[in-house]
UniProtKB/TrEMBL annotation:
MF terms in GO: ATP binding; D-glucose binding; hexokinase activity
Membrane-traversing stretches: 6-25
Residue intervals of the Hexokinase C-terminal domain: 247-497
Hexokinase N-terminal domain boundaries: 41-240
Species of origin: Olea europaea subsp. europaea
Domain of life: Eukaryota
Keyword Transferase: yes
Pathway(s) per entry: Carbohydrate degradation; glycolysis; D-glyceraldehyde 3-phosphate and glycerone phosphate from D-glucose: step 1/4; Carbohydrate metabolism; hexose metabolism
Protein name, per record: Phosphotransferase
Species classification: Eukaryota, Viridiplantae, Streptophyta, Embryophyta, Tracheophyta
Family: Belongs to the hexokinase family.
Keywords for this protein: ATP-binding, Glycolysis, Kinase, Membrane, Nucleotide-binding, Transferase, Transmembrane, Transmembrane helix
Length: 510
């Protein structure tokens, strides 16, 4: 080999060394970055831990807070609102009734025909429409005019093709799923907005009256004769089908629960109520808080960035409005550590871009190479080529976030059961003798409604699993969860029917 050849060979060897060391360096850096990303996942898992012992602490905290909220106004983050609904539908209701369900992403208008035999809902027709975004932050008149004109169109359409209603005047049950301070079963004042609605002029006003006025403006002959929350509608439908239904839970865009309470346990209005017996209490459990809830930095940031910081803490860990965004925040954190995502996608910075149904679709992707995950990452977050190992990691993130949500919801439900002495432990406010009859567990049905629970199989499975774990083998079979499809709407029509002729008590709570 000549001199030139030697130089060339040395040069090549040197270049190879440089390339090799660059590659090794890159591999080492990537390995380190990978380890940091895995660490992000591990920290998330630790932060979201919901072992049974911790869930039991949440159960106890829920029961204690319920009690505190019933003792005095403002006694707890749980508002424990009175509904003035004493009697749930009996099964003897008859006639045709309308319902309007305004809850979050959609509103629904229903027409329900009732026979006079138990379980005889002869039929119901539903019109479902999204609420235009601009109406969520406009004025109350704009929102209610839009709703009333949809209602009028629906009534005209329905009545043109079916026999006219036998009722003298059309009657409507209004499901309004935001915190309301009821003054009777047909009127109430909006306390605050949640779930992204901000219509300032509505706060402090009578919700029923706003709707009634809009209905009159449209020239529609219809009376709003019951104002309820979606949980109460769900309880009403549950009870209509099965008298053992005493608790209802919504797990959709938001989350809330109500249950049947003894009137004498509602200490904050003792002496004020004209009716004894039971009353449905709307817990507004989305605002529940306890130091036992497993909270991460992602929850803290999500809360701080929300329009209602320090509010709805339980809801922000559980409901469909938020789960996708918690996952987005974790992926954003991971993408800052690992360059396989490429330069941090600007899409990933957009709050709520990863909606919960998309997150659920990634979580439930059962293709071997996670093609659905790849598709969502590409189409929604603009990550064109995420390797399989990273896609697997993202599925794990979805799993951790959803599992925590479902298990906390289960603990919340059992907290209610504990408060009313139906969890097998005797309850916190019961006598000794009642507590002793552990073995004689009465059957309890919990009515559940909401898109997150009904559409998200893994969420449902995690919730049911946690219920069994907390209650234990002996008690678990006596607690039955029943899905009430369209419960919030049909239940409102049922209550409109049962409140059609009954006298209604009214009080002013100081
Ligand atoms: P609302 O709570 O507005 O009355 P729904 O009960 O229908 O409405 O719940 C809708 C919510 O349920 C959505 O905002 C979404 O978060 C969640 N959801 C709907 N479909 C799915 C799905 N396939 N997987 C997971 N979550 C879903
Ligand atoms: Mg709803």
């Amino acid at each position: 080999m000549g001199k030139v050849g030697v130089k060339l060979a040395v040069g090549c060897a040197l270049a190879a060394c440089v390339v090799a060391s660059v590659m090794v360096g890159r591999r080492v850096r990537r390995k380190r970055a990978w380890r940091r990303v895995v660490r992000v996942l591990e920290e998330l898992e630790e932060g979201c831990a919901t072992q049974v012992g911790r869930l039991r602490q949440v159960v106890d905290a829920m029961a204690v807070e319920m009690h505190a909220g019933l003792v005095s106004e403002g006694g707890s983050k749980l508002k424990m609102l009175l509904t003035f609904v004493h009697n749930l539908p009996s099964g003897n209701e008859k006639g045709t009734y309308y319902a309007l369900d305004l809850g979050g992403t959609n509103f629904r208008i229903l027409r329900v025909r009732l026979g006079d035999q138990r379980s005889a809902i002869i039929g119901h027709d539903v019109d479902r429409q999204p609420i235009p975004q601009h109406l969520m932050t406009g004025t109350s008149e704009e929102l209610f005019d839009f709703i009333a004109s949809s209602l009028k169109d629906f009534v005209e359409r329905e009545e043109s093709v079916s026999e006219p209603s036998q009722n003298e005047r059309r009657e409507l049950g209004f499901t309004f799923s935001f915190p309301v301070k009821q003054t009777s079963s047909s009127s109430g004042i909006l306390i605050k907005w949640t779930k992204g609605f901000v219509i300032e002029d509505m706060v402090g006003r009578d919700v029923s009256e706003c709707l009634q006025q809009a209905i009159s403006r449209k020239g529609l002959d219809m009376r709003v004769n019951v104002l309820i929350n979606d949980t109460v509608g769900t309880l009403a439908l549950g009870h209509y089908h099965d008298e053992d239904t005493v608790v209802a839970v919504i797990i959709g865009t938001g989350t809330n629960a109500c249950y049947l309470e003894r009137a004498d346990a509602i200490i904050k209005c003792q002496g004020l109520l004209t009716t004894l017996g039971d009353m449905v209490v709307n817990m507004e459990w989305g605002n529940f808080w306890s130091s036992h809830l497993p909270r991460t930095s992602y929850d803290i940031d999500l809360d701080a960035d929300s329009p209602n910081p320090n509010d709805q803490g339980f809801e922000k860990m559980i409901s469909g409005m938020y789960l996708g965004d918690i996952v987005r925040r974790v992926i954003l954190r991971m993408s800052e550590e690992l360059d396989v995502f490429g330069p941090v996608s600007s899409k990933l910075q957009v709050p709520f871009i990863l909606r919960t149904p998309l997150m659920a679709a990634m979580h439930e992707d059962d293709t071997p190479d996670l093609t659905e995950v790849a598709k969502i990452l590409r189409d929604t977050l603009e990550f064109p080529d995420v390797p399989l190992n990273v896609r697997k990691l993202i599925v794990r993130v979805c799993d951790v976030v959803t599992r925590r949500a479902a298990r906390l919801a289960a603990a919340g439900i059992i907290g209610i059961l504990k408060k009313i002495g139906r969890d097998g432990s005797g309850g916190i406010a019961r006598g000794k003798n009642e507590g002793a009859s552990r073995s004689k567990m009465s059957r309890t049905v919990v009515a559940v409604e909401g898109g997150l629970y009904t559409n998200y199989t893994l969420f449902r499975e995690y919730l049911n699993e946690a219920m069994s774990q907390i209650l234990g083998e002996e008690i678990a079979p006596s607690v039955i969860i029943k899905v009430m499809e369209d419960g919030s709407g049909i239940g409102a029509a049922l209550l409109a029917a049962s409140h059609s002729t009954s006298s209604v008590d009214t009080i002013q709570i100081p």
